[in-house]
């Protein structure tokens, strides 16, 4: 995937293009930022730019030549990818890679070594890598991807050039979903808002099963204030039994209440996640919403740790019902 196909990250891409145009590409980069926002794609596009024979006079890879294709399939011998084998990236993997560095790249101008996620380097592997980073060898470029740069050895961080990736803008994710998925506009906006600016997360959240869970619980939340105690208890049983979907359900509750909080603060409806929900409710008092939001976090922790899930779910839904009935 060349740079031209990547969603967002324009400043990062401009910086990488400039470093290549001015012949000052670092020997090692640390790409830092949340998961699912496109660090791997940018790394791959940069690798292609440095290796594609068609890109000599251009600031992007062609994306179509043999080298570009093999690279995007991660099958080119001059692209070395270190990923966890089991829980960690092992020292044997790092040793295997360093052996290759003794020889020049097979056919590309540069060999690219992509390590992701770099925070999964076993401590021994990290130390072995550090030695390699301390003695940079020409025509080898390291790219380390991580969502937690602070988990890496300080010495590794100091020997790499850090590139910070930001969340994608909500509208950018929504537009992408509208163009490239089956989602209608309202759902695309909703998914983009919940994704927190991660396209990878947005794609996961687009799954029909999760959409169904979200609509079910949003609808239930809308009725909660008017439910009988019996109905609330039945819903609580359902919630307590939904371990798999718990994060999704809790997110729905959090974001719906956050919408009401934004509404009561007079914020623009552009910031809402669930527009119809927010429109149907006259906002409860802000302090009640804040207490209710804390209650959701506490309940999620308790249910996850299996602290009497039914009782926790009952308390949560009763409290939310009272808040929403205001
Ligand atoms: Zn190419």
Number of domains: 2
Q: How many E strands?
A: 5
What is the CATH class of the largest domain? Alpha Beta
Q: Report the CATH superfamily of the largest domain.
A: P-loop containing nucleotide triphosphate hydrolases
Radius of gyration: 24 Å
Q: Hey, roughly how much beta strand do the residues contain?
A: 5-15%
Which ligands, by name, code or SMILES, are bound?
zinc ion
CATH fold type of the largest domain:
Rossmann fold
| Shape summary | elongated
What low-confidence regions span 5 or more consecutive residues with pLDDT below 50?
none
Helix share, percent: 40-55%
Instruction: Supply the CATH architecture of the largest domain.
Output: 3-Layer(aba) Sandwich
**What is the CA-CA span between the terminal residues?**
52 Å
The helix-and-strand class reads alpha/beta
Largest β-sheet summary: 5 strands, parallel
Number of helices: 15
Short description:
The protein is α/β, with parallel strands linked by helices and 326 residues long.
Supply database-style keywords.
54% helix; 326 residues; binds zinc ion; alpha/beta; five-stranded parallel β-sheet; single chain; Zinc Finger, Delta Prime, domain 3; Rossmann fold
Q: Mind explaining what this structure looks like?
A:
This protein is of the alpha/beta class and 326 residues long. It has two domains: 3-164, Rossmann fold, CATH 3.40.50.300; 207-324, Zinc Finger, Delta Prime, domain 3 (Up-down Bundle). The protein has helices spanning 10-21, 39-51, 66-72, 91-100, 123-134, 154-158, 170-180, 185-194, 199-205, 208-224, 229-240, 246-264, 275-280, 286-304, 309-324; strands spanning 28-32, 79-82, 111-115, 140-146, 161-164. A five-stranded parallel beta sheet has the order 2-3-4-1-5, sandwiched between helices. α7 crosses α8 (185-194), α10 packs across α12 and α10 packs across α15. Zinc ion binds at residues 52, 54, 61-62, 65, 67-68.
């Amino acid at each position: 995937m060349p740079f031209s196909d990547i969603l967002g990250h324009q400043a990062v891409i401009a910086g990488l293009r400039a470093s290549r145009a001015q012949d000052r590409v670092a020997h090692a980069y640390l790409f830092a930022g949340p998961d699912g926002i496109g660090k791997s794609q940018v790394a791959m596009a940069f690798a292609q730019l440095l290796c594609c024979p068609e890109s000599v006079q251009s600031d992007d890879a062609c994306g179509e030549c043999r080298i570009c294709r093999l690279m995007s399939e991660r099958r080119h011998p001059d692209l070395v990818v270190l990923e966890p084998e089991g829980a960690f990236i092992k020292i044997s993997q790092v040793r295997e890679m360093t052996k290759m560095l003794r020889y020049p790249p097979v056919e590309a101008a540069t060999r690219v070594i992509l390590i992701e996620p770099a925070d999964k380097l076993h401590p021994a592997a990290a130390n072995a890598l550090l030695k390699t980073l301390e003695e940079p060898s020409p025509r080898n470029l390291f790219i380390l991807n991580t969502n937690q740069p602070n988990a890496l050895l300080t010495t590794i961080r100091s020997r790499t050039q850090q590139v910070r990736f930001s969340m994608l803008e909500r509208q950018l994710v929504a537009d992408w979903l509208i163009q490239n998925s089956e989602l209608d506009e309202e759902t695309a906006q909703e998914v983009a808002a919940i994704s927190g600016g991660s396209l990878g997360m947005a794609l996961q959240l687009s799954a029909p099963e999760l959409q169904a869970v979200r609509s079910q619980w949003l609808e239930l939340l809308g009725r909660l204030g008017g439910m009988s105690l019996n109905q609330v208890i039945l819903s609580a049983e359902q919630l307590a039994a939904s371990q798999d979907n718990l994060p999704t359900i809790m997110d729905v509750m959090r974001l719906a209440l956050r919408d009401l909080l934004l509404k009561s603060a007079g914020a623009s409806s552009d910031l809402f996640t669930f527009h119809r929900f927010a429109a149907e409710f006259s906002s409860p008092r802000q302090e009640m919403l804040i207490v209710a939001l804390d209650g959701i976090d506490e309940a999620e922790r308790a249910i996850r740790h299996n602290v009497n899930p039914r009782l926790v779910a009952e308390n949560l839904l009763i409290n939310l019902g009272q808040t929403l009935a205001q």
